[in-house]
Every structure is written in structure tokens, then in C-alpha cells.
Specification:
This protein has about 450 residues and is an alpha+beta fold. The protein has eleven helices and 23 strands. A hairpin with a 5-residue loop joins strand 15 and strand 16. Helix 3 packs across helix 4 (about 90-105) and helix 8 packs across helix 10 (about 400-410).
């Protein structure tokens, strides 16, 4: 899970995820590097209950406020870093930190750790600095077990270079904000999805791009904590360069090239020039939606049909694109709500197809050939929802595969189908079920080091 902070990146000379030991060591001569609401130095955490209590309180303190970084192994004097003393960088210490948080903080906040070894140290056990990166939490307020009375809970929050214990009114305000934020996030997800769908329906080329379309897949994302990206000439030009470097489709360098770049109100847009027709709307707060026209069967009578392998491949592709926009372009970290919806296209006599009718999910036969119907219950539309860590989507690999399986499985339940056949619950690819998309799946597995399920 990435922690993003423009202020700390400026002070460190690099982001917390990439800062070197030498750069951290140089903080001792940096007047701007004093402890603050988002930065704390710890020489060490003591063994025993006291040290464990301190770990839990410190992490909850940042999670309940603006988020921040704790640098363990750095001595300080008068709230300023004085010497990089270092600690032993062991897996056991990191496990202790996670165990302390799991057993003492409720609900558990998200955080990450990064060991930065001292390159000059020659000890058998590496020494260096440990960065504990705590994003601002959408689940705040987080309570901790009272260090003095273990049967009671207290709520700490960062205040300047120290902490305060939240009052009853502070706690009530925090809970109210949590529930309001959840409702706003759900509304935001629905809004970005509806805006993208409206753009598809009003597209000037809709008669042409729908020629081979049986269904429309719409994948959307809204982060727990919105970010902010300035859209100006420079950022638009950078987006134009970035978006055309890679194709959208996982495991492919040919399909899904977004060559038509534009801008809407508080969002960047991109489209393909040919088939498959795709539109991406990427908003300045880190939310976004991707619409993909799926090929399939569109008989004159009866429901249209799209292939489950196409839904799976393009859902993974859209989730990766949306995750990378939120994390890498907007700087959002933490979790996000996502949705995937399917809408059928119906044939119109002497005219282009239009959204409407009903839809079924097609799948390859048991032995990898032929055609079966998955579930067997046609739907006028269907929708699935799930929450994921943004890093798991943006990083690709097995975690993205697991996220795709979860979201597509939730979507397919509307068709009376249990799960998706292309990906196991563990995030392994079941190649025989990919049908015509098998080459795409194989290339994705090789490129992202995703394991293949045993037959």
C-alpha cells in the first residue's frame, strides 16, 4: 500500500517508497525535517508491553489524523533528527509491529513498512532505518487499548509533534464522518459510472462503433479518500504521452490503444480509434470509469450473449488502468470501491443496435471447445461491487487476478452463475476456460508472474 505525501517527498528528496538511506541520513542537517503532524522519529521501540503499546498508539495516532511516516532508528533532539543510529532490520520486528496493531487497534488501520538498510553496515543482521507509512484512514476513528487500563479503549490523534486523546465529541464527529464518507463514496461511484454511460449513449460515432457489439461492460472506481489532480496544459500533455505508451488489455501490446485523448469537466478522457471501442473517463479526484464494447452474439430474436472470458479479461484491464490512474497520476492510496456492470445491445431493423434487450453469459464447453450458457438466466442489466486496495489493482500480478475474480464473480451471480471459470479464488489462471482469450491469459501470466492453475 503506497503512502503519498508531496510535503515529505520534498523534504526527503524522494518519495517514502524510494528514499535512500543517504537521503534519510541527510535529514539531520535539514531545518525543514523536524517532527510534524505527518512525521515522527523513534530511536527504537522497547521490548515488552510498553513498546507494544507505543507501537499501537503511534500508528493509530497518524491514522486518525492526516497520516504520516514514522522513522524508527533515528535519534532526535528537540523534535529534530540528530543521528541515524539504526536498528536491526529483522522480519521478526515487522511481524511484531503487525501483531501489536492487530491486537491493540480497532478497527485495524492500513499501513505499510519499508526497511532501508545502511549500505556501510557489515553486521550479520542488517541494520538501518525502518519507515512505517500510515495513510489517513477512511475507517477513523481507530481506538486503542488503554495502556494503563487494558479493559478500556481510548482514541489518540496526532497534534503537532505529539498526540492528544480525543474527547467524546471528537469521537462522535469521527464516526459521523466515517458513515457520511461511505455514503458519499457510493454516490460518487454511481455518478462516474452514469456519466460514462451517458457519454457512450450520446457518442457521435455510436452507429459505427456498435457494429460488432453484443454488450457493454462498464468498470468504475471511487477511492475511499479522494485526491486532487490539477488539470492544465502540462498535465493534459503528460496524460496524452502516458496513455498511448501501453495498450489497456492485459497480456497484449496490440489491443486497446487509447489514441483519442480529450478532457471533460474535472476529468481526462481517452478513446480507441477502432475496434474494440473503449472509452475511459479519469477524474481529478482519482475516481474513474472505463466502458468496453464486448463482441458476442446478437441474434434477431432472443437475448444477446457475451463471453465470460472477455468480461474477465477486460475487467482486469479496466481495474488496472483505474488503479494506476488513482495511485500514480492523482496520488491516492488506501482502498477503493469498484463496480462492474453489463448492459446488452439489441438489434434494430435497418439501424445500429441500441442499449436494451436482455443478455446471457456464454462460456466454452467443459473440454475447452463448443459453447455453453453460464448460469442460464438472461438479465436486462447486471452489476457487481467489491472493495480493494488500490495498490493491488495498480501493481498487476496475482493480487489483480484475485480482485478480478472477486468482482466478476459478484457480477455473474445475477445470471445464476457461481464464480468465474477463468480465475481461481487464489488468483491462479485456469487456461482451458479462457477459450479464444487463452493467448491473452498466457501472456498476462508470463508478464505479471501469475501462477497457472493445475488441471
Amino acid at each position: 500500500m503506497a503512502f503519498q505525501s508531496a510535503r515529505l517527498t520534498t523534504i526527503f528528496g524522494a518519495s517514502p517508497e524510494t528514499v535512500s538511506y543517504e537521503q534519510l541520513q541527510a535529514l539531520t542537517s535539514n531545518e525543514a525535517a523536524g517532527e510534524a503532524e505527518d512525521l515522527d522519529y523513534k530511536l527504537r521501540y522497547d521490548a515488552g508491553d510498553k513498546g507494544s503499546d507505543d507501537i499501537a498508539v503511534d500508528i493509530a495516532t497518524f491514522a486518525n489524523h492526516l497520516g504520516g511516516v514514522i522513522i524508527v532508528g533515528m535519534a532526535e533532539a528537540n523534535a529534530r533528527p540528530s543521528k541515524a543510529v539504526g536498528i536491526e532490520l529483522t522480519d521478526a520486528f515487522q511481524r511484531r509491529i503487525r501483531t501489536c496493531v492487530a491486537g491493540r487497534v480497532f478497527p485495524q488501520p492500513q499501513f505499510d513498512m519499508r526497511a532501508v538498510p545502511d549500505p556501510t553496515d557489515t553486521s550479520a543482521t542488517p541494520r538501518g532505518l525502518l519507515l512505517i507509512m500510515v495513510p489517513r484512514s477512511p475507517l477513523a476513528p481507530h481506538a486503542v487499548l488503554d495502556p494503563k487500563e487494558k479493559e478500556k479503549l481510548r482514541w489518540p490523534r496526532r497534534h503537532g509533534t505529539g498526540k492528544i486523546w480525543m474527547s467524546e465529541s471528537d469521537i462522535a464527529t469521527g464516526y459521523r464522518r466515517r458513515f457520511v464518507a461511505a455514503a458519499e463514496q457510493s454516490e460518487r461511484l454511481t455518478t462516474v459510472e452514469a456519466q460514462c454511460l451517458e457519454a457512450i449513449q450520446n457518442h457521435k460515432d455510436k452507429g459505427k462503433v456498435h457494429d460488432y457489439t453484443a454488450g457493454l461492460l462498464l468498470v468504475s472506481l471511487a477511492p475511499d479518500l479522494p485526491g486532487h489532480m490539477i488539470i492544465d496544459r502540462d498535465s493534459h500533455a503528460q496524460f496524452n504521452r502516458d496513455i498511448q505508451q501501453d495498450s489497456i488489455l492485459i497480456g497484449s501490446n496490440k489491443l486497446g490503444e487509447l489514441t483519442r485523448v480529450g478532457v471533460g469537466r474535472r476529468r481526462l478522457t481517452a478513446e480507441t480509434a477502432g475496434w474494440p471501442a473503449i472509452r475511459a473517463e479519469l477524474h481529478s479526484d482519482g475516481s474513474g470509469a472505463v466502458a468496453i464494447h464486448l463482441p458476442g452474439q446478437r441474434p434477431e430474436a432472443g437475448p444477446s450473449g457475451v463471453w465470460d472470458s472477455s468480461v474477465t479479461a477486460w475487467t482486469a484491464s479496466a481495474l488496472r488502468l483505474l488503479g494506476r490512474h488513482a495511485r500514480d497520476r492523482v496520488g491516492v492510496s488506501g482502498s477503493a470501491a469498484t463496480s462492474a456492470s453489463l448492459h446488452p445491445y439489441a438489434p434494430i431493423l435497418n439501424g445500429p443496435p441500441v442499449l436494451g434487450g436482455s443478455l446471457i453469459i456464454l462460456t466454452v464447453g467443459f473440454f475447452g471447445d463448443g459453447r455453453d450458457v453460464l448460469g442460464g438466466e438472461p438479465q436486462m442489466s447486471a452489476r457487481g461491487e467489491a472493495d480493494f486496495l488500490i495498490d493491488h489493482l495498480a501493481n498487476d500480478g496475482q493480487e489483480l487476478a484475485q480482485a478480478t475474480e472477486r468482482l466478476v464473480s459478484d457480477l455473474f451471480q445475477s445470471f445464476n452463475a457461481v464464480g468465474t471459470r477463468q480465475i481461481t479464488r487464489e488468483g491462479e489462471l485456469a487456461l482451458p476456460a479462457w477459450g479464444s482469450e487463452r493467448e491473452t491469459a498466457e501472456q498476462w501470466a508470463r508478464a505479471a508472474n501469475i501462477p497457472i492453475a493445475k488441471a
